[in-house]
Amino acid sequence: MNANEQKRFSDQIVKIQTDRKLIATYDRLRYASLTNYAQLHAKGEYSENGRKVHSLIGVTVQDYSNGTGQNNIITQFNLAPEQIQFFLSKITAGFQEYEWSQSKIYGAPDGQGYSTAQQFSISRHATDPNGRPMKSPWRIQIVNGKGIKIQNQNGGAYMKAGSFITEKTAFIQLTDMDLYTLLMRTASYISNWESCISSALITNGKQAYANQQAQKQMQAQAQNGQYQNPAQASPYAA
C-alpha cells in the first residue's frame, strides 16, 4: 500500500451480489436521547439540522445490467431496525407466499411543490406465472422519485394519491439463502450495536431518571409542607 494511501472506511453491513445486481445494507442507527434512554433507538424525539433523527438501516439495490457509470442504477430506502427483524421472522417461519410494501415522503418541497419520495416492496412467490418453481423466489424492489406531500393533523405527512413520479427503479431476485444471509447479518449487527451502546446509555439514563424522581419527590413534599430543612429540624437550631 502506498504510504500516502489512506484506508477507506465503510458503514456497509452486508452485500449480496447476483450476476448484474446487488443489494446492501448500511448502518444508519442512532441512539435515543438520554430522556428516552429505555428506547435505545432514536425515534424522532430530537432533531439535527432541522430534521428529526431516526435510527435506521439503509438499503440499496443496484442494477448495473446496462453498464456502469451513468447507466448504473442505484436506489435507496431506509428501514427501521425492527422491520429487518420482522422480515427475518418471515423467512425463518418458511412463508411460501408473502408481500409487503411501504412508501415514504419527506423533505422540503421544490419549486413545483414536489418532495422526495421512496417506495419499498418485498415479496416471495414460490412459482412463476407459468407455475414453474422459482429458483430465486424473493424479490426486493426500491423506487425513488418525488411526490406531493400533505401534512396530517398529527404532524406527520403522507403522499397525495396519484402524485408519485418515478425517477429510478431497481429490483433484485434472491434465493432463500441469499435473503437469509442479508437479514441475519444485518439483524446480528443491530443486536451487537444495541449491546455496545446500551451499557452507557441505560446507566446514565437510569441515574438521570432517579435524580429527577428524587427532585420531584422533594418538591412535592415541600408543597405539602412535609419537607423541612435539616437546620430547621435540629433541636439546636437558633
Describe it for me?
The radius of gyration is 25 Å and the shape is globular. It has 3 helices and 12 strands. It has a 4-stranded antiparallel beta sheet. Strands 7-8-9-12 form a 4-stranded antiparallel beta sheet. The chain has a two-stranded antiparallel sheet with strand order 3-4. It has 238 residues and is an alpha+beta fold. The chain has one domain (12-196). Helix content is 27%, strand content 35%.
Rg, nearest Å = 25 Å
Strand content: 35-45%
Topology pattern, helix = H, strand = E: EEEEEEHEEEEEEHH
Count up the domains.
Answer: 1
The global form is globular
Oligomer: single chain
Total beta-strand segments: 12
Q: Look at the helices and sheets and give the structural class.
A: alpha+beta
Which residue ranges are poorly predicted, with pLDDT under 50 across at least 5 consecutive positions? 233-238
Helix proportion range: 25-40%
* Average pLDDT for all residues: 90
Instruction: Output the number of helix runs.
Output: 3
Query: Ends: how far apart?
Result: 79 Å
Throw out a few tags for this protein.
alpha+beta; disordered C terminus; 27% helix; four-stranded antiparallel β-sheet; 238 residues; 3 helices; globular; 12 strands; single chain
How would the blueprint of this fold be written?
Blueprint: E1 12-17, E2 21-28, E3 43-48, E4 51-54, E5 56-63, E6 73-79, H1 81-92, E7 98-106, E8 115-124, E9 138-147, E10 149-151, E11 157-159, E12 165-174, H2 176-223, H3 230-233
Region (Disordered): 218-238
